[in-house]
Amino acid sequence: MSGVTDLGVPEGSPVIEVDGARLAVARQGRGPAVVCLHATGHGGRDFEAFAAAMSDRFEIIRIDWPGQGRSGPDRVPASAARYADLLGAALTQLGVTRPILLGNSIGGAAAIIHAARAEVAALVLCDPGGLVAVDATVQRFCRAFTGFFRAGARGAWWYRAAFALYYRQVLPTSAAAAQRRRMIAAAYEIAPILVQSWTSFGQPEADIRHLAAGLDVPVWFAWAKGDKVIPLARCRPAIDAMKAATVSTFAGGHAAFLEQPGEFAEGFARFAALSRP
Questions:
Q1: Beta carbons within 8 Å of 60's beta carbon, 6+ residues apart
Q2: Could you tell me which residues come within 8 angstroms of residue 224 by beta carbon, excluding any fewer than 6 positions away?
Q3: 98, 179, 190, 202: which could form a disulfide with 142 (CB 3.0–4.6 Å)?
């Protein structure tokens, strides 16, 4: 088992082919569909505790993005737009209609794009990308991170130690310790995907504030208040421009469902109950 596969959905999960990409998909439980979309470089295992807590009330569907977890590579570089395309086709193939989308980081941005195109029941967004202007400052920030991950992609001797320091900031809580260790173990393997994703974050089309503002479905932002990469304060103007958005904050660095699983599950259950037609 490689470090990358250990981050993903359970071994033996079905694989579907979507536009040339082989996507590993785990389905667990019965009830309204909740589709979980992970951050770049991560995998469906991020939602393991959430799936265990919620599968008595919902069908929890976890998808590994291409080149991550147990999914195969993609012919198209990673971006929120590409992932939204794959998501739409995957949901059609899986026969899933009007799901709740639970998206983190690039997965949250993909959820916003998909919800602007297709009917969803609600969105749960955990520190999503795309809610700030891609100005010169953001472009410099993205170039710096891209350069860091390029060092990993070329196998720099110091990279794993530096990545470990970085990920102790991204996922600082004890609840996330096991997945944090898996991320660090896979540091070199996931570096090329991180290069692709961070390159896309610096492009003008990564700004999807206009799509978010046009959404007319319930949206719950579950924000890790220690996030230094996507701070809530920078995204507040875009959130305030949305029609039906509420915000809760959680202790953590980037992924409330992973870092505060019990508190997040309680908040999700309340939101989902209020969002049902």
A1: 26, 27, 28, 29, 34, 36, 47, 50, 51, 54
A2: 126, 127, 249, 250, 251, 252, 253, 254, 255, 256, 259
A3: 202
3-134+205-275 fold: Rossmann fold (3.40.50)
* Angstrom distance (rounded) from CA 177 to CA 200: 28
Q: What are the residues facing 100 on neighbouring strands?
A: 34, 122
Place of tokens 């929120």: 80
Say how many Å lie between the first and final Cα of the chain, rounded.
43
Q: Are strands 21-28 and 15-18 parallel, antiparallel or unpaired?
A: antiparallel
For the chain, the domains span 3-134+205-275
Whether pTM exceeds 0.90: yes
**Cβ contacts of 150-153, under 8 Å, gap ≥ 24:** 150/191, 150/195, 151/191, 152/187, 152/188, 152/191, 152/194, 153/188, 153/191, 153/192, 153/195
pLDDT by residue (tens digit) across 165-184? 999 999 999 999 999 999 99
Question: What is the average per-residue pLDDT within 120-137?
Answer: 97
